[in-house]
Amino acid sequence: MEHPVEDNYECENNMEDDDSEEFEDANDFTVELDVKDMTLHRALEEAKQAIFYFFNNQFTEAKQLMSPYATVSVYHALGHAIFLFLEAILTVEPAAIRSASKALKDALVVCNRFRKKNTIGESIGKMVKKNRYEQYTEMEAHAELCHAECLLLKSMLTFMEDETLSSFIKAGIKIRSCFNSYKECQQILFKRQWENEETKLHFESGVKMGIGTFNLMISLLPSRIIKLLEFIGFSGHKDQGLSELIEGYQLNGIRQILCIMTLLGYNLIVMHVLSHRDGDTVICQEMLNKQLKKHPDGVWFLFFQGRLEFMKGNLNESIKYYTRSWKSQDLWPQFHHVCFWELLWVHCLKCEWREALKYSTILSEKSKWSKCLYMYQKAVIMIMMKDDLTFEEQLERDNLMRDVPKYKQRIAGKSLPMEKFAIKKSERYFSQKKLLILPVLELMFMWNLLKIMKNFSIAGDIITLIEAAETEVDSNLKPSKYDHDNKCLVYLLKGACLRHMGAPHQAIHYFEKVIGFQKEIVEDHYLVPYAIVELALVEWEQGHKEKAYLALEDAKKNYTSYSCESRLHFRIHTALSELKVELKKTKH
């Protein structure tokens, strides 16, 4: 890992510190607390206890333990801010976002109070020589680490506070400052003489969590973004990121649990959506076994166990764990919505449309994350139900489709890709005389959910639906200008299912049909680059790596301005990164 660039680091610290200056006086409270007894050791012990409470669904107890000393202890300030941050993320309520933002600003002030101060002579010295990391006290080292974590959370919250381009720039400055702060912490870890092994262990777990997460997340970004980030000092290496996080998980430090959560999120969610391969389910099961012994009713670990069962194709087990997860706590009903989202798709894969409709109704009525997408999802589930709808439900379906465009969100002046996709399809519904072909399966494909078609017991009902639609579009009984769009959608879905079911030659046949019709497609131009990527993955799985590489480069460079383009570019980048490694090994 390269050394931090100290002059940039100093400059950026000054920029982000501007955010917290106004709170300096507000935090110099005169509340009578047992401040002298709040040692670093005690702060770490209470933070560990708060973490136990939190993952045991004892959210109130965790908050009550952190809040009283939030103005005098870096760990209490950070812990208090984290609880408010999570509440803001889950509720998306303006008042909750403001509270979390203030708590994080206040926490930054507390951290700054304990961070290492440089005299004018030391600051001038830093311009010509490296930091003297061995001079950091234990308290100063931990304050630096907590400061980095506060910055990361604050930058994430900035996106929610003010969805403008300027807020993105501010967030970018904070993220870079955070990245440099973690690199400073890494140097402190390596170069400081640690007398107390316990505080070193807690510090080390935090450094590994921060450095590992940054490396992992940056490595996932498309190459054109990575080149820009490298220009301004960021770098990311997936293997290094995973290695740091696994080492952090193996340490019994205070941030071990954060390493676990990051690894679970990466392997069970990020890899599933962005990669053609599965995550490391073995290490996930190992971590979940340990955590569920410690927290048998923990909402987070029950959720991830449900996700793991889903990836294995054990849909009934998945339903059981998701249901246990949402029923395990009521303090944050918004977390129920995360489980309902998962349950919606599990029931769709089982073709249990009435059950899926139940969860999509709750999301469309109560969740604030994307009303536009939730309404579209509910409408397309109702389309799949066909004659099972009452007359009133048919009217509701049409009204939902009309209302989809009304709820479009804009972030930094841009619409969300999946919302734009939903709006296009809702308009198409009416231009095709209230008809969409396999719209739920189309969404499943977009979310990469067809990966579990390798489980033949699941694949049967889905393939039956696709084959019925194939017969319908090929017969051309209801001609329209979208004939080729509809045919190509069915061919892409069938090819994707066949690829996951281990029928590569049949899959290739369907992908080539899509590519062959590209000039006839009227609106759904995304189908062609997505088909090319699917074709590349089949060739790769067949051992034709050069062919796969050329196809991925074709999809990346020769197609643009189609629906969900950035989503596909993330997948292309992930595939190319892995394929390049394999090609290098083959040549050597």
TrEMBL record:
InterPro entries listed in its UniProt record: IML2/TPR_39, TPR-like_helical_dom_sf
Compositionally biased intervals (Acidic residues): 7-23
The protein's name in its UniProt record: Tetratricopeptide repeat protein 39B
Pfam short name (any one): Iml2-TPR_39
Annotated signal peptide: none
Annotated region (Disordered), positions in chain: 1-23
